[in-house]
Request: fold
Amino acid sequence: MKPALLLQTDVLIIGGGMAGAWAALAAREAGAEVVLVDKGYCGTSGVTATAGPGHWWVPPAEREAAVDKRWLATLGLADKRWMHRILAETWARLPTLAPWYGFGVDAGGETHYRALRGPEYMRALRQRIEAAGVTILDHSPALELLLRRDGSAAGARGWQRRAGREWCIRAAAVILATGGCAFKSRLLGSGNNTGDGYLMGAEAGVELSSMEFSNGYCVAQGGTTMTRSMIYGFATYYDAAGREVAPPSGPDPSVRTAALAAALLEGPVYCSLHRVPQDIRLLLAEISPNVPLLFARAGIDAPYDSRFEVALHAEGTGRGTGGLKLAGDDCQTSVHGLYAIGDTATRDLVAGANTGGGAVNSAWALSSGIWAGHAAGRLARRDGRRADEAGEGVGGAGLRPVGTPHRGLDPAPFVRTVQDQMLPYDKNHFRSAKGLEDALAALDDAWLEIRAGLGSPHPPAGDDGRGALARREAAALVASARWCYRAALARQESRGLHHRVDAPVTRPEFDHRLLTGGLDRVWTRAQAFPQTLVHTPSQPQEASA
Amino acid sequence: MIEVIVDSRCNACNRCVEVCPADVFDAVADRPPVLARQTDCQSCYMCELYCRADAIYVGHDCERVEGVSAEQALASGTLGQYRRHSGWDEWAANYCNLHWRMDEVFRRAAAPPAPADTPVLTTPGSQP
Reply:
């Protein structure tokens, strides 16, 4: 076995997506030495790299009104102060990515900052952080966190899958930026988002919040990963008999998830793009070039004149609002020296029960990265690295089985179990107590098997680093699924990105956030918080703190 | 899912090996990379974007390998299309990143249909 790569730094960032990259920049600004590790390549890895985030972008004079309006959609569970914070941070920060990112200028000479194209955004961020002196370790997935005896975050261990050796990095502070969990759904760019940060955070003692708001799906050309919804705003959908299904019903016609899911449960759904205006057809290649590429590759030569099948891909906690619970304005967790940002952190502070189209999540990813990066850098200066103190790995499931490690135990069937329970529309979009209980029985069984026998003889990786990663991903997927569904079972109502067919109305007794956590045994509990709630027609009474 | 690296175009720069988030490729000294873990491909198309030789073909089917040959990939006429339309590298002057117009498209989709849409015609490759 090759000797491990041993490093020391001030701030270790686990995950090189949009949030992690902004955090790396901020930590450097705070004077810290920074190491960023990514499971894949910082620049192509994660859901920002393949997409096109439109940040929530509001000039100062319009913020009061914008926050008040958006807060209604959060259905009482967000915090206006945080919503203002991410607007202010995004407004100040995003333009500073020029000239690494070439922001568009319109015919009137105005520069447009809000919507960046994914690959170029991540390419710009990588170049920016390289220029700032961040050390990037690509193809270096983390396997577990290290904690000191006092429970503080000391660093992490992982595997370098191209170099073929373990890595161990000690740090003053650790930022979890591993993205959300899309449950291996084929959502574009989400293959690495297996909930690793949720598992690592939970193993360190962090709780989670709002994991039940996770029933979103995105439309895509059938058989492909192309979950780029813009053009589908003009879509007309039909069933196999040619009857129109899923007409536009809400303010955003590109999102018709419930109706499409219901139709897909009955049979195939076909899309016609005949309503796309001529000028937009001509623009599509230069807005989202991967969309027409996939039409061409699939032999759809006349995408506006012929019908093609569509699919829905689960967005999990990426579109959702849940994640690791935060303990303060710097996105610190309850564990000293451990921060959570982007989709790894809960976004209920800014999105409540409803993500509102991704703009809020994008502004959140940027802002949380900046705040945590600065704070982690300051903590490093204040506390020092404390690298002489022992740091112990706290990884459990998939790493250190409580039973005998079963060398023949393959993680793949556990991944299929997660997909079987988290991807079907009649389990995850149209939830019910019975459906959730049945799913949890399968998921809890999977957890027990993993906990007992999945692991390597010499953790964390033994001599099989790629295998160790697959085992940890399986454990993180199962853990994330259990937290989502336990919380969904506990919230006996429907609200935002959580729909219960057996409790279809929003109920005032659930005007609170739901916390969840636990590994072998998953618990949920209500978190009351001071917030004035707005009377809406489905709520018979107005409640206030 | 990734189908093939067209050997006749590949210059073994190994950029795809470097940028693949799913660790699909293994580099081979002085030769095109091999698809060492082909079915780990997550169909993100990043390798096509980063391949300046336009040598990589990722099929539309994200669940299975279709079996597209190098000859078929060349005949498709779509090798390098993603990189070209993205205006990367030598294509920067020909294709613009018009992603900033995405909001406008969402807004028009959400607006009530007008009796006749007034076309704002631009052709691909127009200057910003």
Q: What stands out?
A: Residues 226 and 294 of chain A are 8 Å apart (CA to CA). Residues 531-545 of chain A have pLDDT under 50 and may be disordered. Chain A touches chain B through 65 residues (CB under 8 Å).
